[in-house]
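Long-time lurker, first post. I've been practising inverse folding by hand and with some scripts of my own, and I keep getting stuck on stretches where the structure tokens seem ambiguous. Below is the full token string for one chain I'm working on. Before anyone asks, I'm not after the true native sequence, just a reasonable design that respects the backbone. If someone could post their per-position residues I'd love to compare against what I wrote down in my notebook.
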């Protein structure tokens, strides 16, 4: 079994390995995809699926393929459309492919962390793409390092890959089952061997993963919107704790004997997932519209115009307007080409701040009492600037309405949400936040209102960022985060 890598890969890995695993922040939220389709252009299918999952990660993209004899991987920093071209796709031949879009925290945005990753050698070579974050990665890293395993990246994804590779078992399913009993946290995986596509979802089901069919063959994806874009038929969600293998003998499902309490991240419905995706049978668009409507019930106000912060709160804004009877309007126009960039802005551009992303419509906003609907307030750094934009454009009142309850606790399961010390709702009262952001009034959607809007049982969700009630113990991670930020331990 051989591996083909892009030019310069080993040099970049060597430089990155000097930083060590502990230097990188391990919290990430990404998009993954996999396809088993003999006779099809699996690299091109994967490219278009990753394009549909671009919202889940904008820092790097990669595709790995297997033709039964060799595994090839091509990964680069940048957007999908920047990473791949006709030449690179034509070199990725085979019957099986996996793909990855990466979003990383500050300090770990490096070429060596681009996925899919490859571990092993010969017939034991595997390629892996991961979405999520595991909370016992440092313990596992130390254990594997002492056994002689080396690491070429600074991600917990490589820890998972090496753990699987080192696990006892006669086949990959046995190895994965053994590893799942040791991994703590959130993980969805697509794994490529020389002749198999494997998909794995952690027993808590924190991140979404679904199964589809295209031209009689199988595909897996983080979200159903990726299936729509490639003409695949949605079959079902992959269950928490489920392992799926796809090969020449067809599809096989294996489930853990004991599955933990389901804890799907409710932020998938609030913000992460695309509105045209279906998760656990619920269209995200409908859930967001219901969030806006419930906000109107919980926090009514006399106003002239409802404006949803584009794009993530546009649908919720429509829901608020429909339920309240207040007209909805586009008071803010978003520059949809503003995203993560490797070009550092000069001071003048930094001073413009939010104006690079949003432009207010003065004729729409002038002399209006505005209800501004947003998906969440995390650190509270952007919201005051947006409200100030509206006021400068002539809005005489701005009433802030938020689709997420106050975020008081950090996430350790794949969301780059900041430490508790940085979360504004952990440091200020609602009235204090209202005063800080400069709103005339402020209303957060209640947890019960949020769950009602999604329309699924409350016990299905992880709401730890609101309540501090984590589905598994994260005390060590909380203490470590407090030490890293120099903040006092908060309980």
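-- Answer (accepted) --
I ran through it position by position. Result:
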């Amino acid at each position: 079994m051989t591996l083909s890598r892009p030019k310069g890969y080993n040099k970049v890995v060597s430089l990155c390995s000097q930083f060590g695993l502990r230097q990188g922040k391990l919290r990430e939220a990404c998009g993954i995809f996999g396809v088993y389709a003999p006779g099809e252009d699996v690299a091109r299918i994967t490219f278009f699926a990753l394009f549909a999952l671009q919202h889940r990660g904008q820092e790097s993209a990669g595709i790995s393929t297997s033709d039964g004899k060799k595994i090839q991987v091509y990964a680069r920093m940048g957007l999908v459309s920047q990473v791949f071209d006709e030449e690179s796709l034509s070199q990725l031949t085979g019957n099986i492919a996996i793909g990855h879009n990466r979003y990383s925290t500050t300090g770990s945005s490096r070429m060596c962390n681009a996925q899919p990753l490859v571990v092993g050698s010969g017939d034991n070579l595997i390629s892996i793409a991961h979405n999520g974050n595991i909370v016992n990665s440092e313990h596992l890293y130390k254990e594997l390092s002492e056994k002689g395993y080396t690491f070429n990246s600074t991600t917990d994804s490589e820890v998972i890959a090496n753990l699987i590779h080192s696990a006892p078992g006669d086949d990959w399913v046995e190895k994965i089952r053994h590893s799942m009993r040791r991994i703590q946290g959130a993980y969805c995986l697509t794994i490529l061997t020389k002749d198999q596509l494997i998909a794995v979802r952690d027993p808590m089901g924190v991140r979404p993963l679904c199964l589809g069919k295209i031209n009689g063959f199988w595909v897996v994806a983080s979200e159903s919107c990726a299936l729509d874009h490639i003409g695949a038929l949605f079959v079902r969600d992959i269950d928490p704790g489920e392992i799926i293998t796809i090969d020449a003998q067809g599809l096989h499902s294996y489930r853990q004997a004991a599955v933990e309490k389901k804890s799907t991240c409710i932020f998938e419905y609030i913000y992460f997932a695309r509105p045209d995706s279906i998760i656990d049978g619920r269209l995200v668009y409908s859930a967001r519209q219901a969030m806006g409507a419930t906000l109107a019930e919980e926090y009514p106000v006399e106003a002239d115009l409802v404006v949803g912060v584009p794009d993530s709160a546009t649908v919720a804004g429509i829901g608020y307007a429909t339920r309240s009877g207040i007209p909805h309007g586009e008071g803010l126009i978003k520059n949809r080409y503003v995203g993560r960039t490797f070009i550092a802005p000069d001071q003048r551009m930094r001073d413009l701040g939010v104006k690079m992303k949003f432009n207010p419509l003065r004729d729409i906003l002038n002399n209006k009492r505005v209800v501004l609907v947003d998906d969440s307030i995390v650190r509270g750094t952007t919201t005051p600037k947006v409200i100030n934009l509206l006021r400068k454009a002539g809005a005489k009142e701005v009433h802030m309405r938020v689709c997420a309850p106050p975020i008081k606790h950090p996430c350790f399961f794949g969301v780059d949400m900041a430490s508790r010390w940085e979360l504004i709702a952990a440091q200020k009262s609602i009235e204090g936040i209202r005063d800080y952001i400069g709103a005339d009034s402020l209303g957060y959607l209640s947890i019960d209102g949020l769950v009602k809007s999604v329309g699924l049982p409350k016990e299905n969700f992880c709401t730890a960022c609101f309540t501090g009630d984590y589905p598994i113990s994260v005390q060590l991670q909380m203490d470590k985060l407090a030490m890293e930020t120099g903040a006092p331990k908060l309980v």
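A couple of notes from the structure itself: The radius of gyration is 23 Å. The domain at 2-260 is CATH 3.60.20.10 (Glutamine Phosphoribosylpyrophosphate, subunit 1, domain 1). Happy to go over any region you disagree with.
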